[in-house]
């Protein structure tokens, strides 16, 4: 459990709107919104623009609620990790109790109103996503196993399925493969980050793979997951959301991603830290483009389908 001392930590200055907004992890929310939006528009059932807007809004609020609850629970380790020390709670802007109240309230609001606005499958999937991220990942697995980010990555992979379900009321092969695309992308993406911020996880005693098994094992895991990712990413191109544009993007990006993972895997352990970090940072930056480009290509395919092109 997080250090209770954060409950009584004095607030250094009056919180601003931006401090409360930061609790929602807006950068992560961007990915949630985008992939959910793609899932919604790629679905074969047309959605009224207002219903679509409301659905994405509630999915975004649900994603933000997860972020607030994550910061509430992890405030102790956020305080000792360099990249998270400026978050609202360790920075003394917001109390843990406030973060918990905001996260819980937004969770209930988002799930109930998504269900009412669209259907209860979508609302239920959003509720399960929040539960999975907060309870299964944050409270249980994150501090227990080096496979934390693998299993926990499922939470970030649900939004396109939720968007699809909001439009169709069901789950399909295409929506499951969109889930798999994000799910299998998460480990190499975060392990690449962990390779050049390892000391953060050491200091926080979080059992990230880099801490428990070392750099060599982490690089091997990155390569294995990248191979699996490439297979699922290309397979998605042969479903109803794929097409020539998506396949072209997938083939090029997965070739580059596989090369990047291989370059990291074959890295000389005796090479300088600067050389290692350069390769890992390059792969990490490519991973950011990778996911947005794949879902962007799905969005283009949906637009072309609406116009009757390649139909």
From TrEMBL:
<feature type="transmembrane region" description="Helical">
    <location>
        <begin position="51"/>
        <end position="73"/>
    </location>
</feature>
<keyword id="KW-0472">Membrane</keyword>
<comment type="function">
    <text>Converts heme B (protoheme IX) to heme O by substitution of the vinyl group on carbon 2 of heme B porphyrin ring with a hydroxyethyl farnesyl side group.</text>
</comment>
<feature type="transmembrane region" description="Helical">
    <location>
        <begin position="148"/>
        <end position="167"/>
    </location>
</feature>
<dbReference type="InterPro" id="IPR006369">
    <property type="entry name" value="Protohaem_IX_farnesylTrfase"/>
</dbReference>
<keyword id="KW-0808">Transferase</keyword>
<keyword id="KW-0350">Heme biosynthesis</keyword>
<keyword id="KW-0812">Transmembrane</keyword>
<dbReference type="InterPro" id="IPR044878">
    <property type="entry name" value="UbiA_sf"/>
</dbReference>
<dbReference type="InterPro" id="IPR030470">
    <property type="entry name" value="UbiA_prenylTrfase_CS"/>
</dbReference>
<feature type="transmembrane region" description="Helical">
    <location>
        <begin position="283"/>
        <end position="304"/>
    </location>
</feature>
<feature type="transmembrane region" description="Helical">
    <location>
        <begin position="173"/>
        <end position="197"/>
    </location>
</feature>
<protein>
    <recommendedName>
        <fullName>Protoheme IX farnesyltransferase</fullName>
        <ecNumber>2.5.1.141</ecNumber>
    </recommendedName>
</protein>
<feature type="transmembrane region" description="Helical">
    <location>
        <begin position="122"/>
        <end position="141"/>
    </location>
</feature>
<feature type="transmembrane region" description="Helical">
    <location>
        <begin position="218"/>
        <end position="238"/>
    </location>
</feature>
<comment type="similarity">
    <text>Belongs to the UbiA prenyltransferase family. Protoheme IX farnesyltransferase subfamily.</text>
</comment>
<dbReference type="GO" id="GO:0008495">
    <property type="term" value="F:protoheme IX farnesyltransferase activity"/>
</dbReference>
<feature type="transmembrane region" description="Helical">
    <location>
        <begin position="28"/>
        <end position="45"/>
    </location>
</feature>
<keyword id="KW-1003">Cell membrane</keyword>
<comment type="pathway">
    <text>Porphyrin-containing compound metabolism; heme O biosynthesis; heme O from protoheme: step 1/1.</text>
</comment>
<keyword id="KW-1133">Transmembrane helix</keyword>
<comment type="subunit">
    <text>Interacts with CtaA.</text>
</comment>
<feature type="transmembrane region" description="Helical">
    <location>
        <begin position="94"/>
        <end position="116"/>
    </location>
</feature>
<dbReference type="Pfam" id="PF01040">
    <property type="entry name" value="UbiA"/>
</dbReference>
<feature type="transmembrane region" description="Helical">
    <location>
        <begin position="244"/>
        <end position="262"/>
    </location>
</feature>
<dbReference type="InterPro" id="IPR000537">
    <property type="entry name" value="UbiA_prenyltransferase"/>
</dbReference>
